[in-house]
Specification:
By secondary structure, the protein is of the alpha/beta class. Helix content is 26%, strand content 20%. It is globular.
């Protein structure tokens, strides 16, 4: 007789606990917006204050295919103010004689590991590959980057004003890359290119197979693709859930993949063979993301027309090949063949702390290979491989990459034709400020790491 009232009371309490009004009180008022990129770890970069600068009488490669002989470049308020002949300098401007010299936009390297694999190259400094799982999209290269890497100053002396630091290629998805202005800073946020989208480093081919073949896979190319598809399927479901009324727990790994599919992150894929590049293009179509650039791509020449037709850049070396099987079928005409179709987007990248110092010479080697094959590439076209095209791949072309009015004052004055083996950067401006001068050692940055290891004149040994 006493069981019924107790049972009824329990049922009433249970009904109250799960009533619609009670459930409504537990739900958030509105779903949290997807935090794919956000403002965390935002840039603190500020341009160095500078007076107006007028470079006169130089050969100017604008970076968009245009060449001006005997022309002037005016920098003012950190921006390109004008490019033309017979420009007038404003009051207080510094005049630089460009007679017999060449002017180009600052060089942009969209594939660098400076800072994450810095010099000195010790194991304690090797922070570019998070080799714990095939998909590590939760890691960000900027959280490994060491601003004191002496390689940044060496790259500046080679005319590099902007660069993208990427994780390595051990993983199917290695993590986020970051675009930097090549300026001295105590922390990486002080170098971070304002407003530049993040990059996403992915890889296909031999590297993920080699690293994970004995760690549970993938161990085949089909395993690579299956792993990528699985990750993006999971991210797509995660994005739907995050946009709903019950977003659930945040996942940093899936944040990045969802951002790539939403077009908020530029996708860069390490891929050598033509057949695998084609599969990556199909993968992008399946999941609705755009590939900003295929990197290394020694067989990109085999599908140059398809890359151009789909608006995908190819970031390439001039002549590296044969160091592993997937790099075996490279040709020295690769760059010019990728560049040749209408809308072709060829890029010279480094992937090397030494190569980044001489990207102009790497481009010159590709021009020479094209010439031997009967494909003549003029300097005003070739400079696009180093400036306009990488800026496009990084999503910063509206800000830099060409010498057009209103863009950042990132400029290099060369002692002659930049595609000569004798070419040297005489002066380098970043946002209108003189950051490097070959004739002035006080304008040749020295990393804090090297202080106390230099000679009495302040230079490196």
């Amino acid at each position: 007789m006493l069981r019924f009232p107790i049972a009824a009371l329990c049922a009433a309490v249970l009904a109250l606990a799960v009533s619609p009004s009670a459930m409504a009180r537990k739900k958030p008022a509105s779903p949290e917006p997807p935090p794919w990129t956000g403002e965390v770890y935002s840039s603190t970069y500020r341009p160095v204050a500078s007076a107006p600068v007028l470079i006169t009488g130089a050969t100017v490669l604008v970076g968009n295919g245009e060449r001006l002989d005997g022309a002037d470049v005016l920098l003012q308020d950190g921006r390109i103010a004008a490019v033309g002949v017979g420009l007038t300098a404003p009051a207080g401007a510094l005049r630089v004689d460009g007679s017999g010299k060449w002017v180009t936009p600052g060089i942009i390297d969209n594939h660098s590991h400076l800072g994450v694999y810095p010099s000195p190259g010790t194991q304690s400094h090797a922070d570019g590959n998070e080799m714990v799982a095939p998909v590590t999209s939760q890691v960000w290269a900027e959280h490994s980057a060491w601003p004191q890497d002496p390689g940044f100053a060496a790259a500046l002396a080679g005319g590099v004003t902007t660069l993208q630091l990427l994780p390595g290629s051990a993983n199917l998805v290695g993590g986020r890359g970051v675009t930097l202005k090549n300026v001295p800073s105590v922390d990486v946020q002080g170098m971070k290119f304002p407003g530049a989208p993040y990059g996403l480093k992915m890889a296909c081919g031999e590297n993920p197979k080699r690293v994970y073949g004995q760690k549970g896979g993938p161990m085949t190319r089909m395993g690579n693709v299956a792993g990528l598809r699985t990750a993006f399927i999971e991210a797509r479901e995660y994005a739907r859930r995050r946009a709903g009324s019950e977003p659930g727990k945040r996942d940093l790994k899936l944040d990045t993949l969802a951002a790539a599919m939403a077009g908020e992150i530029q996708v860069h894929i390490h891929c050598y063979r033509a057949d695998e590049i084609a599969v990556m293009l199909d993968l992008a179509r399946e999941f609705g993301f755009t590939i900003a650039s295929i990197h290394h791509g020694v067989e990109a020449y085999k599908l140059a027309d398809r890359l151009a037709g789909e608006g995908v850049c190819a970031s390439l070396w001039a002549d590296w090949w044969g160091f592993k099987m997937e790099a075996f079928d490279g040709i020295q005409e690769n760059l010019v063949m990728v560049d040749r179709p209408t809308n072709g987007c060829a890029i010279v990248h480094s992937d090397s702390p030494e190569g980044i110092q001489r990207l102009n010479q790497e481009a010159a080697k590709a021009m020479a290979a094209g010439r031997r094959a009967g494909i003549e590439v003029a300097p005003e076209r070739a400079i696009r491989w180093l400036t306009q095209n990488p800026a496009r791949s990084l999503g910063v072309l509206e800000q830099t990459g060409t010498l057009e009015a209103g863009k950042m004052g990132d400029v290099v004055l060369w002692n002659g034709n930049p595609f000569s083996s004798y070419a040297l950067a005489d002066k380098v401006w970043i946002d209108g400020a003189l950051m490097y001068d070959r004739q002035d050692r006080s304008r040749q940055p020295v990393s804090d790491f090297l202080l106390g290891q230099s000679d009495s004149q302040g230079g490196t040994p």
